[in-house]
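Posting for a labmate who doesn't have an account.
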Amino acid sequence: MKRARTPLAAALVLTLPLALVPLAGCGGSGDAQASPKPSGKDAAADKKGENGKEKKEEAVPVELAAIGRGAIEAVLRFSTNLEAESHVEVFSEANRKVVELRVEEGDRVRKGDVLLRLQDDAQRSDVAKAEVELDQAEREYARQQRLHAESLISEQDFNDATYRLQQLRLKLADSQRELGYTEVRAPIAGTVTQRLVKLGDQVQVGQHLFDIVDFDSIVARVYVPEKHLRDLAPGLVARVSSPSLGSSEFAGRVDRIAPVVDPKTGTVKVTVALGGQPGLRPGLYVDVDLVTAVHRDAVLVPKRALVYDNDLVFVFRLKDGNRAERIALDPVLEDKINVEPAGGLAAGDRIVVAGQTGLKDGALVKDVDAEPEPEAAPSDRASL
């Protein structure tokens, strides 16, 4: 037999779904409506870790070095080929056969030394004949002179004797000159660098026979931009090196500075005298460093510390123990390794020499070469 529902029981059944509706609305699905923005307290909480403490700023690893002092030079660098200022080509002045060679390539000669001899039989005979004729003419002239003084011969006869004497003297001089052409002599002191004739050759007038170079006259000619003209002066120190000679370095000095500027290139020709230093040869390709200034006790900033921003140069200096400060650098002198700044930095300052790419002014940094701090001993666990 079924029991009839009471009014109270029906009311409870009807109110249960209604009671669930506000609960669902309060829970709020993320898909149903947007999440509210975090309050100021929530934003501050984002900067905190899980334990509620603020996150620690991470230091950028860099390499640091202390600025030192030392000597630095301002150097202008050029490349060129060496030349010998005293260099001559020796030519034949007669058509003769080579009968004797006196020198070979590499021999040193003095000015006037005989280099070779040509066949000279005919020339010697001509000189001997001219000498005999001149001797006879001189005796005849002396006799004519005495007769003319006593008015025993006419003025015309005396003039003819004088003329004949002069002609024979010129003939002897011509014969001696032709004989001299059979001996080829060195016009300068130096070293024979090239022999272009062999024993027995029949040479012609104007034929190239030898090259002679004075190695004491070796120079390097460089062309300096006109903007550096105020830095140049005779006597400036120059250093010369060559890839062909390894690490050897040769000393030179500025000998001459051209008085004009080439309008086409805007350069000034500078001649560096090197002298006869062993190893230097005409034609050798060399690098020339002109030392225009020397500072003996300068602040030296390593070039690897420099940061370039368009036309400006910066370095990062350590301040407040572990912060990087960006310092503008105005170079005064520079060499291959270091730069001397105009100011703002001092010996002993620690600067960033590696890791500065992208570094911000005031960033926290740590030296990667510094010894790590010893780790703290683990604390004893409390016994349970």
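Reply:
Got it, the structure tokens are right above this. Helices lie at 7-27, 40-46, 121-149, 155-180.
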